[in-house]
Write a structure and sequence with these properties.
The structure is a homotetramer of 436-residue chains.
Chain A (H helix, E strand, L loop, with lengths): L2 H25 L8 H14 L2 E4 L15 H13 L4 H4 L9 E7 L4 E7 L14 H4 L15 H17 L6 E8 L8 H6 L8 E8 L8 E2 L1 E5 L1 E10 L15 H13 L9 E10 L9 E10 L2 H21 L3 E10 L2 E2 L2 H14 L9 E3 L6 H10 L3 E8 L16 H18 L2
Parallel strand pairs in A: 3-4, 3-5, 5-14, 7-13
Antiparallel strand pairs in A: 1-2, 2-4, 6-14, 7-12, 8-10, 8-11, 9-10
Helix pairs in contact in A: 1-6, 1-12, 2-6, 6-12, 8-9, 10-12
């Protein structure tokens, strides 16, 4: 019996259901840590398929979650999730922002294969134009300010497709499958909390995938990614003292002036001789009135580095700049970590392995370059680095399909053939790694 | 016949009406350039009293108005004014933010005596606590975000009281009376547009008055003020170009960085050897997202100087800093004048004259010091300087009454005996200057 | 017997000797803490006149001296002083930079009258042009880079004239006379060390004087000065770590960058609402080569304030800026106090007293204004404030005479009639205060 | 006949003469544009060997020379050269800083092979310690502040060795040989002036070489270099206006403040997304005295980039920062180009060619890696890029020999076997390219 062919056929068969799930997730888009409806439905479906299911605090380490919204926002999101049809059994565990889900399939002794699917939406208002398919076909986001503009609706749906197909070929496998549905990838907020909980400690092979536009050479799959920048995201608040700018400027403690000193000196952090570094202060909001010494200044900033070491260098320097700028103008400063990623490198031999399976067993076309550079940052890096640190292998796969627009835009959309392809690659490789 | 005694009695008699008007203005508080209801009622009452009335573009030079709100805001304010009982005849002229009113009383040959009453509210939310009199007695502002927290409701009402009393003693006067009701004093936005229209060019004597807390020596009146700082208020917008902070920082034009460079260097403008200077950037809002090079930065700032010359020095230097900071980071900058005041000095001999009239004719107590320093800035300076520039005299009078709290606070209130006092001083002096 | 007349005559008689001494001091100009020849000759002459003489560490508190040159410079100056005719007995005590001298005349019970004469030259190269009198007449400075361009040669000589005349009228006095010859006034380095030694603690009346150009009204004397700015002078050294700017910029600790951050933020120290403040970084020297991260940066800076409080405010803020700028870029900073002055105010009634004595007893003309503003800073303020702090009185007198050029210029010279005038005022007042 | 063997033997034979020349050049070290003695002797020797010789303005384009010392320094250097034994015939042409020399050997039709030898010393004081060979053996630099601490004495000497050997095998060559002796490589000042004169326009193959320490694998030669950073070196002078910092700070134009604003913002130039960039202000000298607003500030700075494009980006941005910082504080700025290099890449196939010749024909050992990264900047890049721009090939060769210390240090020295190796590689390759 050719199990690969079974996988190919099953992937095709499960596609309509994936499309339907994907469009449902798209319509009820939920941003990081608020994926309560989404997570509860994933858990429900995994359980119904026969998976052992973890959800809530069993998945995410409470204090390792970054950039969690305020209690008020969490509460409102919970109510919305319930009102929009969250699964009543599982949604409870997500209260307070515990929206990770893990589905486990145990097939006796053997390797552990992990897969990561990110599930959160972006803070974008979806286009309502007729030429935007989700709008025309009625599954555009109904949640204002939340939109799946990065394809994570597809990532989540493909994870359920993988779950369904693996369950079908279960008898041919030995070892353990872990399907990790991660919240809060945008802003690099969620992966670390799952890693800290220990879920990657026994994983021998790890995959992740991301929607990526068509390849010039028509390939379906690029097995690996590399070179994403390690990054930290910080929210920074300077606090000083208000005073009348005309009458008693010397009585103020000027938080806006401290922030300005910080900004210039942050950008002036020396380049690192060993590779690229980045720094950005993307937002700055300070002061209350023209004639008042500003008593507060808030900044959203980030640092990046080619390597984790370079990122640490910039981050340490940045903190020194922030603290010194505050001290300089007699203010205080609070620095809050809002997100983090490490640098990411797929294993070369593992990429070659994926390429071989895709080409020889699954009839897919692999791009000429087996790995491409990731411009930004991805927190799957936390998972991959943990797996690699104990000798495991992994790859962040780029699955190609047509995209209407670049990610994060209001009319972003992707060709749903993506879903089928992911199921083929992930299940094909899982079988190859776990076959008896 | 003792006309001074007539004035004293009339001031007392007109007080209940002034109190009623003041509370009405207080309830329907309107901020700068939006005083459409207020202005229309003032015009109505002046006309009913027999004054020649100017309103709308006849009062304020269109392009000399500073800090005028957007068309949208103006339109909404107009509709609100109409719905809150604006005078149907006069409100039309105020459309688009022409909310100055002048009442003229011509009594043949003789000197021209001008008086200025400012009529705008502040952008403050009034307290609703029971211990705040306007709240308890039902005349707290019904317009959210607008409150007479600086006493201009009283200034406006006192102007109508003065109008009523002067009309009663009209036959004893020769010359011309000009009662100037000025919009937009807060932010120093309105006076200049009236001066530019030429209304101060023939004024020989000018008064203005401001509510001021009780004097230590129990005086009712301090005839003069001096030493207010000349000032300019600017809104500044830097514009650059957005780019991804991780992938292509070099493609951005960083408006936030330009603003930060500007801020530090603005505060670093060298002190002036001849007197005090001030600079403040009170608000700064920049950028759209953490990982995007900020393409816009907005600042509210101001400069001040002991003298008009020092103010000009700081202003010129500040503009150079703003333009250079923009150029430095390849951005553009727009600098918009939002308000202005000159330095202000009451004429010493005129203050003595007021003191003499108050003490000897009106039975009022004058404080020991005939003039006190004005900490902030006042745009009556534009009027006073124009009058002084052609040989006229003037004073900015401080009329004392109990205040509950310092100005600009949410529970600010003043003792309405203020109204009676102003009528006595202004009418007494007008008579003294214009008596046949 | 009219002692005032005796003083007038004696002042005239002692003038040729003062001129001669002044020209000798002028020729052998010595800058701050190097006045070894000058001090030794002053001590010699005081002793020969019959004064009790203090010199060396008995006058200046070692650690309270500021801006003392290096041991090498001190050593060379000592050798030069010896070779240029220093008094062999007294010069020894000046070794190492102890160049203050005090002459004491005890006349039994009574008030203590102190007088301060500053004796140091400036770091200026004297003009050799024929139209410069000292050059033409052969007493221009022979010490390159040292010139009496501020009249302290005259101040020193006048102190010896005062000493001679007071000794003549000794029998008419009761109390104690203290003639204080102070080193290092330039840079505000010397006064504090004498105050710290306690020499002003028992002084009831204090005079100082300074050469000042002719008055518009032809007056000889302006009894008082006020309003000099309190000041601190600092030498600042940032230390970091060198690294190759191309290969490993991240390994450097950039002292030049730290200094630049400090400079901008120093100038940005908020104005003080209560009066004038000043800040200046006058020199900055940093780095060793174009392609090396600078490991050292040296700055000469100063702060000033209308009052001692304002000066302290600016100084404290400046230190915070310096330390924070260093910390920001991982450098260290050393801040060395090089000079200091307090704000200075002559006692009004004492000025009136001086005016009366000058006019009524000494036949001198006093200027209409009894006190004039001092633009810069003067460390006689330390002495005056100490005297005033225990209830004493004092004045910093401006004695008028023609000047060729403003002070600190290469052709500065003053009319030596100054010397006679000082003797008259100081001895006249001393007699008036100490007469039996 | 085996010409390669002839070359090997001749290289050996010419070594003692090269050692002698190298030590002579070492003893009379001359820095950039002052290599008058050195150049005249090179010209003499080339002519004596039979080469056509170009020198003076025939070699270097006058206005394309960068960082030329002042006339005063040039004049003194000329006099020194003459007094230290410069060749009387050729030295004349070097007057004013025209110290390039080209030797041409024409062998009929065929390719043109160029070789570049840099000849200038560094501004370093040579060690006089006994353990420093040149000091012990009496050929340490006699010119204070000038030392061959980068091996260019060897480069120059090896060029003369190459000249001698090529002349011996002349009959076996067809085409043209150009031996280019370049002044002012340190500071990247000289190459461009030779390129601008057109001397590289007809060159088909270009070599340069540099002394490099022993390879880990014992190789004699690394055929290529790559990745040197493109760079510009600037001297920057800000000019403002002095004023008294206490009395009239507003009258100054603060050049030190302008420079500080420039420094911070220079370091804050955004990173380039496409590769490494560098910026450094290595020296800053500003101001004349503590209490004077600084009227001048001088900076030595440089920018670099992975590619010529990135370097241009940083340079353009830097100029904008400098000009804007000057304008901001009402100063002027002068920016003077003092040196420049482009990015450099040896041709891969040409490196393989060199490797083959060295290994197979010359019996030399080539390092495993055929090209190594150049950390800094090299202005041979100008020549190489010109040659490559018209289809020529080239390589910057690293010839290995023991070094006592890293370059630019006071005890730098290299094993003179270097000389022999260069002659072998250069002559071997020339023969291979030009053989009939």
């Amino acid at each position: 019996m050719n199990v690969y062919q079974t996988i190919i056929d099953a992937a095709q068969a499960v596609t309509p259901e994936m499309v339907s799930v994907r469009r449902d997730f798209h319509k009820y888009a939920e941003t990081g840590w608020l994926e309560m409806r989404t997570a509860s439905i994933i858990a429900r479906k995994l359980k119904d398929l026969g998976y052992e299911v973890l959800i809530g605090e069993d998945v995410c380490e409470r204090d390792a979650r970054m950039g969690v919204p305020s209690d008020e926002v969490l509460k409102a999101a919970y109510e919305r999730a319930v009102s929009q049809g969250a699964d009543p059994e599982f949604v409870k565990a997500t209260e307070g922002g515990f929206t990770g889900v893990i589905g486990i399939l145990r097939c006796g002794e053997g390797p552990t294969v992990g897969m990561r699917f990110d599930i959160d939406a972006l803070g974008v208002n979806e286009s309502t134009d007729e030429d935007h398919l989700p709008a025309r076909d009625g599954y555009a986001s109904v949640n204002a300010g939340s939109m799946h503009a990065c394809g994570h609706d597809g990532h989540a749906a493909s994870g359920l497709g993988v779950a369904a197909v693996l369950m079908q070929i279960k008898e041919h496998l030995h070892g353990t499958v872990k399907l990790i549905f991660q919240p809060g990838e945008e802003g690099l907020r969620g992966a670390k909390s799952i890693v800290e909980k220990g879920h990657l400690d026994d994983v021998d092979y790890l995959f992740g995938a991301h929607t990526t536009g068509e390849a010039a050479d028509g390939g379906d799959v690029t097995p690996g990614s590399y070179g994403s920048l390690a990054s930290y995201k910080y929210d920074v608040t300077f606090r000083g003292l208000a005073a009348h700018a005309g009458g008693s400027p010397h009585l103020g403690k000027n938080a806006l002036l401290a922030a300005a000193a910080a900004v210039t000196n942050l950008y002036a952090i020396p380049r690192h001789g060993a590779g690229a570094s980045r720094i950005n202060v993307g937002r700055l909001i300070a002061g209350s009135g023209r004639n008042v010494i500003a008593d507060e200044a808030f900044m959203e900033m980030e640092v990046r580095g080619d390597t984790t070491e370079i990122n640490e260098y910039v981050s340490d320097y940045a903190k020194r700049v922030l603290e010194s700028a505050a001290a300089m103008h007699d203010c205080t400063v609070e620095i809050k970590l809002m997100g983090a990623a490490q640098s990411l490198n797929s294993d070369e031999d593992f990429c070659e392995h994926i390429a071989a399976v895709c080409t020889e067993k699954l009839g897919m076309k692999v791009t000429e370059k087996l790995a491409i550079k990731l411009g930004g940052s991805e927190d799957v890096s936390y998972m991959l680095n943990r797996v690699q640190s104990h000798g495991g292998k992994g790859a962040f796969v780029r699955v190609r399909s047509k995209m209407t627009e670049s990610a994060h835009k209001r009319k972003f959309d992707f060709d749903e053939s993506y879903l089928t392809k992911v199921v083929k690659v992930f299940c094909g490789m899982t079988y190859d790694l776990m076959k008896k």
